[in-house]
Amino acid sequence: MECCEARDHLAELARNRLEPDLADAVRAHAAGCVGCADALRVEAALHALIRERAPRYAAPPALRARVQAALRKSEVPISSGWRAWLSLHPWMGTGLAGALVALIAVWVGTTWLAADPVARLVSRALDEHVEYAREAMHRPAPNPVDLLATLRSQAGFALGPLFPGDAEVQLISTKTAELRSKPAVALVYRNGPERYATLLLMPGADATIPAEDRLPIESFKPYHRVASGKQVLYWKQNDLACLMVSDLDGPATAALFLKIRKAA
Amino acid sequence: MDDPLSQLPAEALTHLDGLYNLARWLVRDPAEAEDLVQETYLRALKGSHQFQVGTNLRAWLFQILRNTFFTQYRKQGREPEAVDPEVLDTMATRLGAAGPPSGASNGTLSVDLRAALQQLPEDYRAVVLLADVEDFTMTEVADIMGCPVGTVKSRLFRARAILQELLRDYVR
Description:
Helix content of chain A: 40-55%
Oligomer: heterodimer
Strand content of chain A: 15-25%
CATH architecture of the largest domain in chain B: Orthogonal Bundle
Distance between the termini of chain B: 50 Å
Number of helices of chain A: 10
Structural class of chain B: mainly alpha
Distance between the termini of chain A: 70 Å
CATH class of the largest domain in chain A: Alpha Beta
Number of strands of chain A: 6
Strand order of the largest sheet of chain A: 1-2-3-6-5-4
Number of strands of chain B: 0
Number of helices of chain B: 9
CATH architecture of the largest domain in chain A: 2-Layer Sandwich
CATH superfamily of the largest domain in chain A: MucB/RseB, C-terminal domain
Largest sheet of chain B: none
């Protein structure tokens, strides 16, 4: 067997999908060919890595409910009573129960968002944080003075003094954004190799910080929540509303908050 | 169940997460991904008479999603990324010479994996996701992508070369 023929089968061999005779032939070739043996090892390793560790997105409950509704509309019209119809389509009992659960989940979710004005902000900030952290992952730390100067020129509103980072915390990137249909800016800090925090600033004259769920940090009491495993702090400083989403643990988040708060 | 219309909903819904996952990797924006998946199911319902009971419903749904994605791109005047094999060969070579992007060795695996997959051209990313995450055979991937099996293997092979360099901290 030649190398080109062997490599044509490596992907299926790594998945144990080759006929036994062909699999033996490819293995025999790889046993005497360093290049093909290495290609087979890489194929198997990458296949396992991606299959087991690649991030997977689950369909949101609202989408599931919409699709279920669309599928239900396609069903045979119910002419002889729903009990008889269900007896002919027993799987739909489970499907309807699932749809009901999904609808309740959507209703609870939207009610929670409507009742809690900070929830929508936090939800959006979490999405932004994940995206910013991903982008910042492969970025070397630039000059923070240049970053902040550029951000001030783009922000469209006064930012006041900002924490530029220090020996422990690096300012990795800044962005202009939009939250609550208003202009905002984001500052992404890195504290250690796998830990990021996103600080979102927006004009905050009309912002209301919830009175409950306050976390005392020295003389300050920002609003505090843990959402999707992230620490979230929300507070006002000067005329800005400030929202920080952090991968750090509680004490490190509090320490970063103090640096940001005291810089202002 | 002899009528495909009555069979489609029962099994089709079990593939929702997989379809949405691929949609997110293709269009990235969550709202667009939801629209793409919803449109996929609507098209599947409209074309359910074309589906043959006993054949691969899952691959058929993924094929519809893939075709819908292409159609919507064309409608919006946004052509999918052109894939030039020579450019990709030099990309893998260049990555090999330059090393992984700065910070890759410091990142979490899932973040590095996500970044590496996002760097692949769209056609290559789709093949990798279908073959590795969804565990389709090469023949099924070819059917879904609407191309010969040889093309699928070639894309997978080239994608591997790029991923090997981007993920060299994890694949030694």
